[in-house]
Amino acid sequence: MKKATEVYVSKRERLHVEIRNYTIQWSKLNKEVVLNAKLNKVSTVIAPLLNEIQDLFGVKDLRVISKAVFGKDLGRKELLKFMKSVCNENVC
């Protein structure tokens, strides 16, 4: 039982890292959309990202995606703020 739990936790941590990295990559590729997004239109802006994450990783729950990015669920608006900050870095 302990081994199974360790394997599950390890897989989940890897998945969270992959989702976080994908979110950063997606934000950079869609910089204009992200930077022009209004906080009252978050769902519309992040819907394509959520669909791609669901297709690639099998995760569609925004709470899980938010937890993967932040380490805890902070919601859609904080996710968009994070994506905007990624785009505002000099790397983008």
Structure summarized in a few sentences:
With 92 residues, the chain is mostly helical. It has helices at residues 2-29, 31-35, 42-57, 62-70, 76-88.
Summarize the helices and strands and which ones pair or pack.
Elements (H helix, E strand, L loop, with lengths): L1 H28 L1 H5 L6 H16 L4 H9 L5 H13 L4
Fold and architecture overview:
It contains five helices and no strands. Helix 1 packs across helix 5. It is an all-alpha fold.
Tally of discrete structural domains: 1
User: How many separate helices?
Assistant: 5
3D shape: elongated
H/E topology pattern: HHHHH
What number is the mean pLDDT?
Answer: 93
Distance between the termini: 44 Å
Major sheet? none
Number of strands: 0
Given as residue ranges, the uncertain stretches (5+ residues, pLDDT < 50) are none
Helix amount:
over 70%
**Class by SSE composition:** mainly alpha
Rg, nearest Å:
14 Å
Could you tell me the strand content as a percent range? under 5%
Features:
92 residues, mainly alpha, 5 helices, 0% strand, elongated
